[in-house]
Amino acid sequence: MADLADRLRSALAVRGRPSSDHDLNPGMRPSPERTLRRAAVLIPVIDRPANASVILTKRSSALKHHPGQIAFPGGKVDEADDGAVGAALREAREEIGLDRRHVDVLGTLPPHETVTGFQVTPVLALVTADFKARPAPGEVAEAFEAPLDHVMNPARFLIESRRWRGKRRLYFVVPWGPYYIWGATARILRALADRMSNVET
Length: 201
Hints:
Blueprint: H1 2-13, E1 37-47, E2 52-59, E3 70-71, E4 74-76, H2 83-96, E5 103-108, E6 112-113, E7 118-127, E8 140-147, H3 148-151, E9 158-164, E10 167-173, H4 183-196
Parallel strand pairs: 1-7
Antiparallel strand pairs: 1-2, 1-4, 2-3, 2-8, 5-7, 6-7, 9-10
């Protein structure tokens, strides 16, 4: 795990601009006077003996916002949280039962701005190999692992589009098996993948 931790820390140290849902749509940027709401997500990496992987969730189809979408554990930063890291860890505990004792926080990526008005801080962490996810009923339909070498390979990412609020928007996707990973989740993974590709192995 030490080698992987070193590589991930080195990736965090690589210079790079913040990512956003607007990166592929430069002509559709919102007003600079907008107010963004703070949020955080955890990028939980498990160094399995055969292959490292990233834990992702499939949101419940019963949720009001983003039902059925693939996402990192995460949510809004509350006043009681210890910043973005505290929020990401709290949400991971609530959504997939990830206790703090299983987590080694490595650092954060620059905040990611979403088209829905959130400034999301991605928190990168290593998770012990013996952790077993327990999806929260009614909130998380499924927790699964995607191979790290798949989602850290920029060549695996595609650009697709759909209409949103009357305009066609481009976005990244990185499909894996039956899972359609897209939008902010895919963009954050792509930002980390770009940094990882600049780290010597």
